[in-house]
Design a protein that fits this description.
mainly alpha
């Protein structure tokens, strides 16, 4: 189930930087959970970037 959240342009820029795979660290012990965390981080970054760019 999805939820709507609204961010300012500046907040979107911060999300994009925070979830950039070069900077993101999952910091979990379980390999499967780590992979899930990295996949979620990439999805968040992509959604934030699309929202920021307007598409």
């Amino acid at each position: 189930m999805g939820k709507s959240v609204y961010f300012s342009d500046y907040e979107l820029q911060l999300l994009i930087r925070a979830f950039d795979m070069a900077n993101f660290s999952a910091e979990v012990d379980d390999q499967e959970e780590e992979e899930r965390s990295y996949a979620a981080a990439e999805n968040i970054r992509e959604k934030a970037e699309k929202a920021y760019r307007g598409y």
